[in-house]
Amino acid sequence: MKISTELLHYLSLKGITDPDDQHRFLLPRLTDHYDPFSMKGMRETVEWLRGAVKEHHKILVWGHADLDGIASAAMFKFALEDLGAEKVGVRIPSREVEWFGLIPDELRELKASGVDLVVTVDIGVTNVVEAALARELGLGLIITDHHELIGKAPDTILINPKLPQSGYPWPQLAGAGVVLKLVCALYQYMVGMSVEE
Questions:
Q1: Structural domain that includes position 15
Q2: 162 lies in the same domain as 114
Q3: Could you count the other beta carbons within 10 Å of the beta carbon of residue 62?
Q4: Exposed, middle or buried, 43 (CB in 10 Å: 0-12/13-18/19+)?
Q5: Are residues 19 and 91 located together in one domain of the fold?
Q6: Is residue 86 part of a domain?
Q7: CA distance 66 to 6
């Protein structure tokens, strides 16, 4: 495959310098997908979610108020409902009024309203205090994110390909890419469906 100089430059900025990797990036096939279970925390996450779905837990998907977060939340909600979850809500905080990430007062309100599990999409890697609060409240919390970890990681299940110990070979996933990997893992784990299906 012939690649223009400009595109080669862009790929090199993304760390894609191997010709085989360049080909896979530009002309991907479903069989080129990396195993979602290679990402640290994935197996524990799908086991927790499977139990939450089977036990009819109330799940809230908390997303970031940008295109990546909104697409991630929509994809994840649809997948959970398709897999049998009956009580799935979505929370996208307003960018003008609220800050980025989990909000302590809302976590308290969610617990009081009967939410059993909060799953973040495209946010949460910096929410150390809020993760501790969720644990204190007895509110389940799974964080999926793709932003850089600065400082200490939250004390909860954290799926993020950019973590040094993530085990995932492609750290450049967007938030929606992380959620897509989680969705693929859920379908594989819960119904035996592969990514090709």
A1: 1-29
A2: yes
A3: 27
A4: middle
A5: no
A6: yes
A7: 28
Domain of residue 70, CATH code: 3.90.1640.30
pTM confidence score: 0.88
Do 128 and 145 meet the contact criterion of CB atoms below 8 Å apart?
A: no
Tell me: do 58 and 111 sit in the same domain.
yes
User: What is the token pair recorded at 54?
Assistant: 């089977």
73 versus 101: the higher-pLDDT residue is: 73
Q: Does the structure show a pLDDT above 90 at 125?
A: yes
Q: What is the CA radius of gyration of the chain?
A: 18
pLDDT of 20: 87
Helix and strand numbers (H, E) in the chain are 7, 5
Strand partners, 118: 60, 141
Q: Is 73 left (phi over 0), alpha (psi -120 to 50) or beta?
A: alpha
- In this structure, the answer to whether residues 2 and 58 fall within a common structural domain is no
For the chain, what is the domain count?
2
Sign of the torsion angle spanned by Cα atoms 124, 94, 97, 141? negative
Residues 1 and 52 in one domain: no
Task: Extract the tokens encoding 101.
Answer: 């990430």
